[in-house]
Design brief:
By secondary structure, the chain is α+β, with helices and mostly antiparallel strands. The chain has one domain. The chain contains three helices and five strands; from the N terminus they run H-H-E-E-E-E-E-H. Helix 1 runs antiparallel to helix 2. The C terminus is likely disordered.
Length: about 140
């Protein structure tokens, strides 16, 4: 019997490549978007706080403008795959809340919805638990922007 199942490269199972940008560009993107749509200001403030933290020196980010809602995706690896220990944070204007989604290759994803007032504390917990990074504390290693 002939196998007609197409073979997939192992890399194809890891999801799409997400191209990262310098934190300054990510912040500028959301500053511009918040100027055009003032209701996005909580997302802009969230991204600005993360970019200004020591944690940004070891995290790589990309803006998410399509899909489930506006937000950012970041990881501790540059140009990461969409299922490689990625934290997506999306902002929902209608409810004024953030959704945190930690994606993994094994599909054992974690998801949490919080009000805007809880977003930075939730970020603090995710960074410490998923990446071993303190949001405000010293970060060993990199000097990047």
């Amino acid at each position: 019997m002939k196998d007609i199942t197409p073979k997939r490269d192992r890399e194809a199972w890891r999801g799409a490549v997400i191209k990262t940008r310098p934190w300054s560009e990510v912040v500028e993107t959301w500053a511009d978007m918040a100027t055009a749509m003032p209701r996005l200001e909580p997302l802009h403030q969230f991204v600005r706080a993360l970019a200004a933290s020591p944690a940004s020196s070891v995290l790589f980010a990309a803006s998410l403008k399509h899909g489930d809602g506006p937000g950012i995706a970041f990881s501790d690896s540059p140009d990461f795959r969409s299922t490689d220990s990625v934290l997506e944070v999306r902002y929902f204007i209608g409810g004024g809340h953030f959704e945190f989604l930690h994606r993994t290759f094994s599909r054992h994803d974690d998801r949490k919805m919080v009000q805007a007032s809880e977003a930075v504390e939730t970020l603090r917990l995710y960074l410490r638990y998923k990446y071993g990074i303190l949001l405000e504390g010293p970060v060993a290693g990199a000097n990047r922007s």
